[in-house]
Amino acid sequence: MSGGDHKPADSLARRLDLLASLRGYKAAWLPTDIGAGLAIAAVGLPSAIAYPAIAGLPAETGIYASIASVLAYAVFGPSRRLIVGPDAATVTLMASVMGAAIGASAGGDARVAVAAALAIVVGAICVLARLLKFGSIASFLSRPILIGFFAGVALSILVGQLGKITGLKIDAPGPVSSLIELFSKVDAIHWPSLILAVAMFAVLMAAPRLKSPVPGPVIVVVLATLLSWLFGFEAMGMRVVGALPEGLPSLALPDFSSLSIPDFLMGAGAVFLVSFGAGIITARSFGEITGEEVDPNRELAGFGAANVASGLLGGFPVTASDSRTAVNLSVGGRTQLAGVFSAIALSAAMLFFSDLLRLVPLPALGAILVAAALGLIDLKDLREVWRISPIEFVFAIIAMVGAIGFGVLQGVIIAIFGTLAHVVLNGMHPRVVLLGRLPNQAGFYKMHRSERVQPIPEMTIVLIQDSLLFYSVDHVKARLAEIRANLAPGTRWLVLDGSALAQIDVTAAAMLQEFHRSLEADGIRLAVAELSSEATALLRRAELIDEIGETMFFDDLEDAVRAFEAEQNG
């Protein structure tokens, strides 16, 4: 068979990142990948059965999501060692979307169907974004705003666990209302549940301090299950996970017919934006440790496949998991085979240990969720944001308060508008400075920085240090008017240094046209240097280049100065 006959297969091999992950695989790596897979499953199991409760889903949906997502990411994901799975913040946002789509009182089957549908749609959005090469959307929510938003989500999770750890039924929506209801029912607290939750939380806090080789959540699940079996917690009135289905789910497409598609798509978009943004931050954090370069566009394919697979197997939206990835690295997992082995281990748990898992007490899972929520509150990063940029700290607090006060889904909208407001505020007042020469030195320097910088006689050079768009035009126009009013007598040319003008829009072009005409009326010529090709094309379509004159546009600022000097000498 000729070499050309292999091309389609080679192309397919390049597209399947599992093959890339296994390229150069050594037999000696297999034991570490198996060990890492078992460790990932052990650490992932507690969160897999705990996180679904945030959204009112049965515990098995978290296990299904943990199995399906890692298998799909192993095939389509680019990272050799990143592990995907359920995430507390993503599940909390999903719960808010589900409440808006079907109501908080909807039954379990309806919630499972909506969660699965949400995972599929989020995955489809990832794939579409990958095809359009929209990976840069991961940077849409700034890190400070995400820090604040996750702190708000964490506080929402903390309040949401009050019912589990106290044994009370809390029906009130929102953190404040839930706290009020808790205080009104304080006499009905189920003290065995509260005592167990506090004890398990103490174990979670002590495990890392005592440098336990076994992660705290694993200890809590094993210990709480053992105590539940020995002392019959369920008979004492303590809520437990309950019956789990025997075996594994089959592939199925959830029913979309009962959903309000526009509202559902808006919610799915919010889940996509937050989960992908957080996932890329996790991927980049671990990429710095492993030396892997993170390509957001390729990660979109991996996350998309993981979410679609999770939805088809009855799971819910997933993203990169920091705890599972950290365990994978610490144990020495080499490739995505570690994720595959974790899926096999979780499948075995569902097949052979479902009777034990049903005994896990909910107060213990509540303690795990409280610990996970506290992990989302990064006070160190918040302090660092405050130290570096107080204005960004304000936006972080706005995102946090939005998630707490208005709900997680509304908090995403507030965070998005906060990001847009931050971008606009930063761009509304670009610096407009004058350039000149230093004696006996090449190049151009900002005149406000040193008295030694002198203007070129009869020429004024203006640098605009940002894009020139509709929201910044008034500020730049006022600054240019100020410069024009203070031009030195005899000024013949005003040169606009466009090296920092990444973008110009129609409003800016109209302003520049007006400015050119006002200069021309005073006998001063306007020149433009180092303008980008995109900005030049826009000015050409606006017919401003024809009005100013093609010869007054220069590729380099030095060329403009030489042309001015030649005109002077001529």
What is the tally of helical segments?
25
Total domain modules: 2
Low-confidence stretches: 1-13
Going by helix content, strand content and strand pairing, the class is mainly alpha
* β-sheet strand percentage: 5-15%
| Topology, number of strands | 8
The radius of gyration is: 30 Å
Largest sheet: 6 strands, mixed
Mean pLDDT: 87
> Any idea what the shape is?
elongated
Cα(first) to Cα(last) distance is 74 Å
Residues in helix, %: 55-70%
Strand order within the widest sheet? Answer: 4-3-5-6-7-8
Summarize the entry for a quick read:
This protein is mainly α and 570 residues long.
Describe the structure in your own words.
This protein is mainly α and 570 residues long. The chain folds into two domains: 395 residues, no CATH class; 138 residues, Transcription Regulator spoIIAA (2-Layer Sandwich), CATH 3.30.750.24. Helix content is 62%, strand content 5%. Helix 5 packs across helix 7 and helix 18 packs across helix 19. The N terminus is likely disordered.
Topology record:
Blueprint: H1 7-15, H2 17-22, H3 30-50, H4 60-76, E1 84-85, H5 88-102, H6 108-131, H7 143-160, H8 162-166, H9 175-184, H10 191-209, H11 216-231, H12 261-290, H13 296-312, E2 319-320, H14 322-331, H15 337-352, H16 354-357, H17 362-376, H18 379-388, H19 390-405, H20 408-427, E3 432-436, E4 445-446, E5 459-464, H21 473-485, E6 493-497, H22 506-521, E7 525-529, H23 533-541, H24 544-548, E8 553-554, H25 557-569
Parallel strand pairs: 5-6, 6-7, 7-8
Antiparallel strand pairs: 1-2, 3-4, 3-5
Helix pairs in contact: 3-4, 3-11, 3-14, 3-15, 3-17, 4-13, 4-15, 5-6, 5-7, 5-12, 6-12, 6-13, 7-17, 7-19, 7-20, 10-11, 10-17, 18-19, 19-20, 21-22
